[in-house]
Design goal:
- The chain folds into two domains: 2-58; 63-122, no CATH class.
- 31% of the residues lie in helices and 31% in strands.
- It contains four helices and six strands.
- It has helices at 41-58, 63-70, 74-78, 114-122, and strands spanning 2-10, 16-26, 29-38, 85-86, 91-94, 108-111.
- A hairpin with a 2-residue loop joins strand 2 and strand 3.
- Helix 2 packs antiparallel against helix 4 (114-122).
């Protein structure tokens, strides 16, 4: 069952931030959790309700599957943006891959298997593109 929880957090400068945790819990076990922080209460509630609806509709996102299918680290999968997905070449541009000598600018085009492409196309796209 999907849920969201909000914690009001005062900052040192006196302003208040709202930390929202959205997730899916089955019994006593957490299947998925994600956290975001907002400056306004209305934004936090809107995101929480929207994220719970997405989790109820689409189920728990599983980045491990696409990570295994594409031979990428989970953190590299999380950094992928929609403009990095190249449908024509059936590949995805991975930015700043881990390299021993160079920390940034390590971009590589990774080919995607059919299963990984299906997972990408099944993922919801943001409203702004």
């Amino acid at each position: 069952m999907a849920y969201y929880n909000m914690v009001k957090r005062p900052r040192a400068d006196g302003t208040v931030r709202y930390r929202l945790t959205a997730g899916v819990k089955e019994g006593d076990k957490h299947l998925h959790r994600e956290t975001r922080t907002f400056g306004k209460l209305a934004q936090a509630r809107t995101w929480g309700a929207k994220r719970v609806a997405e989790l109820e509709e689409n189920g728990v996102p599983n980045s491990n599957d696409i990570s295994i299918l594409s031979c990428m680290r989970v953190v590299e999968v999380y950094k992928i943006r929609w403009e990095d997905v190249d449908e024509k070449q059936k590949a995805v541009l991975v930015r700043d891959i881990k390299a021993p000598r160079k920390k940034s600018g390590n971009h590589i085009l990774v080919p995607l298997l059919a299963e990984a492409r299906a997972m990408c196309s099944a993922s919801p796209k943001p409203a702004n593109g």
